[in-house]
Amino acid sequence: MIDKVSSSDQEYWALKSTAEIGDALCAKVRQYYRFIQESNRISLYRRAYQMYYSPALEGAQLNFTGLEGELVQITVNDYRNLITHLITLITSQRPSFECRASNTDHKSDAQCILGQALVDYYLREKKVENYLKLALEMALSIYGEAFISVPWNATIGNPVGRDPETGVTVKDGDIELDVFGPLHYVRDFSKDSAHGHYWGIPVRKRNKYELAAKYPEYADILVGLTMSPEIFDGMDIFWDYYRAVAYAFETDEIPVFTFYHKKSDALPQGREVFFLSDGTVIYDEPLPYDDVPVYRMACADWHGTPFGYTVGYDLMPVQEMTDALDSAICSNQNAFAVTNLWAAPGQVPEATNIAGGLRLLQCPTKPEVLQLMGTAPEVFQYREALIESKSRLAGLDPVTLGNPTKDLSGSAMALLQSTSVQFSIGTQQSYVSALEDVGTAIINRLRVFAKVPRVAAIAGKNNKQFMEEFVGDDISMVDRVLVDQGNPLMNTTSGKMNLADKLLEHQMIQTPEEYLMVYTTGRLEPLYQNLQSELMLIKQENEQLSEGINPPVLITDNPLIHLKEHQVVANSPEARNDPQIMQAYTQHQQDHINLWRGHLDPQSGQWINGIDPALAGMLGIPSPPPPPQPPGMGPPPGAQPPPPQPGHPALPTRSKPQGMLPPQGEAMNPSAPGQPQSQAPKKPRMPHAPAGSPPGNAQIIANQAPV
Description:
Helix content is 40%, strand content 16%.
């Protein structure tokens, strides 16, 4: 327990002592539910709930009303159909998570990759995505908003030991998610905005016998509670059903409440109180989280209030009118579908059977068929107009609804679908924001509470599963989880196909498997995983070079990428003035060059070839230049001439390299090594003085040495 001050010493009710806080919180809950009823929000939520589930609530059948059951009541639930299309449009593409860290070193990047994989693991294996979709459905169909709680439950998970004092099995704990509507999340209704709230009280249903086993000191109180306490009086949208179950049958579930108060100036440590409907406080401690672990998703804000608004509220009256027209048409058809005849009084037709099932009617005057079942065409025209109005209000085009107009091109259909997505961009942004909040909460919970090693199945390259053991410290540098919303067209099949075609055109897709992956999922990560891993390696090598350590190089390293990215190390005056760093840097760069183009072994004097041109081509590495050759010598032993480049002719080669030894039987010419004595050069003709030159000039010319 944390120290609390008495209500007589402080004005703020959230600072009351543990003995007093339970009653104060129950008063807040009653006040909230009273406002929900008196503001008529309970009627709005009830009508939206009944409209969304109307066929099921009416027994999924036709209903007959009127004094004698002459009226037919039918519901064609376009409301639910349009809401379902909106949900599909927003959630059709699985979100792409990206973790961010405050630093950009290799360790932080590696932790971000692990954190991203963990969020994806919880989204996939722990079914977090299902909770988010449920919240979106609740917000669109009934409430205009929904809430997702992401607390840590230390009593669930895998067993890791046993408490030596109590003998109770200790578990490693895990995240426990819940989804609430505004009827199950009590907050300050007097605020004029949904943002900036300091506290909230989610209402959950839990098994009272499980709680009694967890809190044995409160077992008698817990077992004596029911599902229908007086605190919910008037909240009959759902509680009527629960009351009926509680009164007619025995139920094990009871409502439980958790009060969260964020850390603030008034409560620097925050507060978390677990209490019951009678005011009994089970748990009262400082808030163990950085924020209130409840996150809101809203279709739109209802300005001036803390509540949400949904396009469903715009659709509801139109749906009611459509149901009225459908019921009128069905009532007319049901009453007058059987054909009636009219004849003059006293002139009843006489019927005579004829062979073949035919009958002959005889009457002085011809009887007439009464056409009483005809419905005015204006009724059908107005009904069609209402249906179009509902599609327009929901922002859904015929292509998205599965009724494309004839002769529409693929580009036109893609444009129509993109406009539908753009119409719902507000709801989509709220959904993405909730994804980011939940993803960040998952990372924060694991970082703080995952103290013992745990194993998660993480999707590696090509979606292959491998097991990764981690603790909270392994993601200590991850600050935030972001979600890539992407292009609106990426949520549609036509958009994915267009992207796949563009990537294929630019040769960024090499295999049919990659094309199908982009076409079906729209995800591009596998296309750049190789480059991403190489850049991660370079960043780690740069950190080692900055410490004066020369990491090893491989012949498959791309020298163009490595040489350029390693320049970051030398682009620092401090590094250039450090001999150890510069020695490691220059040697590492030279190692890349040597493995790429080849080098002369200083010990053996032999030339060591660089990367094979065929291997370089397969890896997308440019072929190295030909090795340098001494004057008058051929290529080094074992060296292969470079392959001809496209558009350039092959270089001519000598059929017989010039060796250092003369042919057999010839003497070595000492003045010209490599040439036989018989091919020794002759002396050049010496210059002579021109005729008529002075005798002294002729003597000077004769004494000059040959050049």
